[in-house]
UniProtKB/TrEMBL annotation:
PANTHER family: RAB GTPASE-ACTIVATING PROTEIN 1-LIKE (PTHR47219), TBC1 DOMAIN FAMILY MEMBER 12 ISOFORM X1 (PTHR47219:SF15). This is Rab-GAP TBC domain-containing protein. One of its GO terms (molecular function) is enzyme binding. GO terms for cellular component: cytoplasmic vesicle; vacuole. Pfam families: RabGAP-TBC. The lineage of its organism: Eukaryota, Metazoa, Chordata, Craniata, Vertebrata. Residues 1-62 form the Rab-GAP TBC domain. Gene3D superfamilies: Ypt/Rab-GAP domain of gyp1p, domain 3. GO terms for biological process: vesicle-mediated transport. InterPro entries: Rab-GAP-TBC_dom (IPR000195), Rab-GAP_TBC_sf (IPR035969), Rab_GAP_TBC_domain (IPR050302).
Length: 145
């Protein structure tokens, strides 16, 4: 999972740099919120009807969409999250507001670019895998033990 978190952070920084820096200032790493989202396929944090829509697209598009959804959620609530501290962010991301609409969420997901420079998700993930095999654990705070 640490390799996925590191890859997620690459796209987090690329798409939402201001929020990324805010999270970094609190040492808030993706493992704090993302593991719950991914392991439950968003069924714990999103209303069930929205989670079902995420599952449908995940079945069609693959694992990349799960991480794109996570970035879409962060984009949707970026303004709110920028005003919160560590504890409030962690609590907020554990159980998202029930009034979230599919239109707003999926438009935020669509706005997420899953391409870093000229590399797509799979290429960035492969690069992270290679870096880890070579012992380079400096690329992501989530990888530091």
């Amino acid at each position: 999972m640490l390799k996925y978190f590191a890859t997620f952070e690459v796209f987090f920084e690329e798409n939402l740099s201001k929020l990324f820096l805010h999270f970094k200032s609190y040492s808030l790493t993706p493992d704090i919120y993302l593991i719950d989202w991914i392991f439950t396929l968003y069924s714990k944090s999103l209303p069930l009807d929205l989670a079902c829509r995420v599952w449908d697209v995940f079945c069609r598009d693959g694992e990349e969409f799960l991480f794109r959804t996570g970035l879409g959620i962060l984009r949707l609530y970026e303004d709110i999250l920028l005003q919160m501290d560590f504890i409030h962010i962690a609590q907020f991301l554990t159980k998202l507001p029930e009034d979230i609409t599919s239109e707003k969420l999926f438009s935020c997901i669509a706005a997420i670019q899953m391409q870093n420079s000229t590399k797509k998700w799979a290429q960035v993930f492969a690069s992270v895998m290679k870096d880890i095999k070579e012992g380079d654990k400096n690329s992501s705070p989530a990888l530091k033990s």
